[in-house]
Amino acid sequence: MRIAFLLFAWLLSFGAMAAPGDAATLDRSTWPEQLNSPTLFDVASRAEILMFAKVLLGTESLDEVTLAQRLGLRTINVDSINQLRDRLWQRLLTNYNFAQQSCDQDASFCFLVEDLATLREQAAKFVISEDSFYIKWSEPSRLFHLQYLDELLRKAALFPQTSSEVDRFGDYERNGEAMNDRLFLLTFDTAANAIPDNTGWLTEYLRKSNLNGTFFVLGKDIQARLGERSVASLQATYSQQCIGVQGWEFRSHSYWQDWQDSVRRSADLLKTKLPENYVPLFRPPDGQRRADAQGFFEAQGLQVALWDIDAQDGAGKLKGSQSGQRVLTLMLLWRHGVINFNVKQDAVKTAMPWIFTQTAQSGIGWEDCQNGFR
């Protein structure tokens, strides 16, 4: 019976990874304006919100069979998809209300939106005319949001059998949705590969930029580093940064029999060796964790730390410039949130500085890692 259950669980996990399609990205050079003021950030934000809303509205007419085929799945969880759509609409409405506060300074993409019904109405008729200043952006943006929405819908279609960051199991889990407008938190995942490890470069770059982030580390990686260098050296590497746990090994914590020990051992090691940097947060590898884990995490004094802006810079996915442009587009769409980079991919060394440059005068802020998931 146990073997059969493990085989079934493996098949579910395989289904989550099979044929997900290419990660969405958008060439930001198609947007004709620099984001060099809070008002121009709002203009671009309103445009991305309306385009995503139009695409989202278009999926609601698809029946279950057609949507499953579009997502490359045999079966889909319709209830989970509908719940995701509801959350997306509410967030789009909130974000558009924030973005239209500068309409008296620049009226581009400003329409009468008073409630969800009027947002849906404006999304339905949203179109960029051929002679528009923004025409070169229009079709690339539409394609980006189609592809990005499919990423979200696919994860929702598999949830909760295959868990991911697309939804939460309870209030003990946190993502970026509750953060203040224009505020973003930098987080960094690790991965199973040993190299490249950009931790040292990233922490030094952040310190020089007077910024910080939360690094989610593997227990076995920290143990290996302590075998090569002193505790003081490791503390210097992570100086002024926050460290959470990602488990002892990079593997799914949904069906791993020793997942609790994986989390507990890693947390104990960090609390002992890096107490000034440690924050009581667990980042599940690939977002995969158990639905019935609340009691364990509360007993350990831990929260599950998810994300809502994914750089998609994992192996074989987006390169540096593509990853940065994806993140910036999602920052405009969601207006706040938790950004997830991969510390063991070189894309972050290009993407992150580019984002800082592009947004330096846009009026956004970077949340302190000590406060990010509160």
From TrEMBL:
UniProt KW Signal keyword: yes
Any one GO BP annotation for this protein: carbohydrate metabolic process
The keyword Cell membrane is assigned to this record: no
UniProt cross-references to CDD domains, sorted A to Z: CE4_NodB_like_6s_7s
Leader sequence segment: 1-18
Residue ranges of every copy of the NodB homology domain listed in the record: 179-303
Pfam families per the UniProt record, alphabetical: Polysacc_deac_1
Keywords per UniProt: Signal
Record protein name field: Polysaccharide deacetylase
Protein source organism: Pseudomonas prosekii
